[in-house]
Each structure stands twice: as C-alpha cells, then as structure tokens.
Write a structure and sequence with these properties.
single chain, alpha/beta, 7 strands
C-alpha cells in the first residue's frame, strides 16, 4: 500500500481510523483505502451514515455561532478530527474576530492536518491528547497559552463521547472538564443512539459491529444516559434533541430521515 505524501510517518495505514472514516463520510480526501472499506461496510447496514455526519457538522456550526453570539470567545474542541469545511475556528473567528480556539485529537493525521490548516493563525492551536485523560489537556501549554479558564469557554465534545466505553469512565472525564470551566461556559455535545435511526436496531447494529471489528467500539447510549453528561449544566433551549431540531436555520422537516439519528444539546455552566 502506497503511503500518500500527507500521511505522517510512523502511522499504520493498514489500520482503520475513526477520524479518517468520518472524513470519508464527509467527502474528504484524508483517508486510506482501509478507512473507505470500513465505511462502505458500515453503510451496507446504514446507508444514511453520511447524512448523519453532515447533520452533525451543521449542528456544530450552529452551536459555535450561538456561543459566539452569547459573547464567548474561547473554544475547546476535543475530538476535533480532520479539518473540513466549516471548521470551528473559521466559524468562531468569523462571528467573533479574535476568538481563540484549541483543537484536541489523538489521531496523527487529524493533528498534522490541523497544524497545516492553522499555520499563521495565532489565535488557534492543536494538541495531541485524549479525552480520557482530561488533566493532560487542561495542563497543556498550548491550552494555557490561548485559553483563560477563569473566563467562559465553549467546550465541544461533538461525536466523540460515543467512542469512550463505560469502563473508561466518560462521565468522570466530562465532570473533570466541567469543574475546570468558569460559570457561563457552554458544553456542546452530539452523541450516537439507536433512538431516531430509521431502521430496526438489529439492522443498525450491523454498522455498530463494524466499529467493534476495527477496535473502535461505538457506544449507542440512550437519551437518558446522554443527558447524564449534562449534570452541573442548565440545558439551553430546546434541550437534548435530534440534531436538525436544535435551533435550525431552515425547516427541519426538509431533512433526510437519517439526520435525526442520535442527539445534540448545549448546556450552560451554572
């Protein structure tokens, strides 16, 4: 298998990556054949997966604009993935010039491509770190150089918590991050769930099994379990809802049925 010029040395391009599979769903070019093969296998069970990812990105952009409109000028995006159209720093800095953005990911392709995209942008940076180790993120010199944790921050955990298994204590990690945030901070989440998918659960489970096979289990939590991540936050209207129905830019009934899969929400730190 030929290694593309953009692929960082040292990564195994024969092993699929969740970040690169997501990039493929969105029509990106920073993925390998092994990623495309895994994505195509998942789509055999859930052909609407690209629609779900597009709805996820659309929600992210709306949530960032909402945060900027609320006066927040600091953004911490954990599990940011490979940059694509409508990145957080582009949306935030367009809405609020001078907004500061820190991206966090553990995928080398995502980190290296983010560095290239951010070259020359003094108000944005990227950290190699893992959500499961929040203290490493909070103590990072890059974060401390851009983010003042004594002031409100928009913490973005978009399409990442469903890749953290219960045994790795995702609720504990989220609580550690919450406790480091100033009052008035916003917490932005999307999460996969069997609820809302226009397929029988056993059919959708075939796609979930693909992620299990590539050793990146996709944890499909209930709405009730997803709501637990918002403990210590006041939910922003309309609450925890399907992605297209969170403050839509246009009539949500025009959305593809698959885009209603899973949940999105924003909470405000009391």
């Amino acid at each position: 298998m030929e290694r593309p010029a953009w692929a960082p040395r040292g990564i195994d391009i024969s092993v699929p990556s969740v970040s690169r599979i997501y990039d493929y769903y969105l029509g990106g070019s920073h993925n390998f054949e092994v990623d495309r093969e895994a994505a195509r296998r998942a789509m055999e069970f859930m052909p609407g997966l690209p629609k779900i990812m597009q709805a996820n990105r659309a929600f992210l952009r709306r949530a960032v604009r909402f945060a900027a409109d609320e006066g927040i000028s600091q953004f911490l995006d954990i599990g940011s993935g490979i940059p694509t159209y409508g990145n957080v720093h582009e949306v935030a800095q367009s809405a609020r010039p001078g907004a500061r953005v820190v991206y966090v990911d553990h995928d080398p392709v995502a980190v290296e491509h983010s560095r290239a995209v951010l070259d020359g942008n003094e108000d944005a940076d990227v950290i190699t770190a893992d959500l499961r180790k929040p203290q490493e993120i909070l103590a990072s010199p890059q974060l401390r150089g851009l983010i003042d944790l004594n002031q409100p921050v928009a913490l973005l955990l978009v399409a990442i918590l469903h890749f953290v298994e219960d045994e790795d204590d995702p609720y504990g990690a989220v609580a550690e991050l919450r406790d480091a945030l100033a009052p008035g901070s916003l917490f932005v989440v999307t999460h996969a769930s069997y609820e809302g998918i226009p397929l029988p659960p056993e059919r959708a489970g075939g796609a979930v099994d693909v992620y299990k096979d590539i050793r990146s289990p996709l944890i499909m939590r209930s709405r009730e379990d997803i709501a637990r991540f918002f403990e210590g936050y006041d939910m922003v209207e309309p609450g925890l809802v399907p992605m297209p129905t969170w403050r839509p830019d246009s009539a949500s009934e025009d959305e593809d049925p698959y885009s209603y899969s899973g949940f999105a929400g924003v909470g405000r730190r009391a």
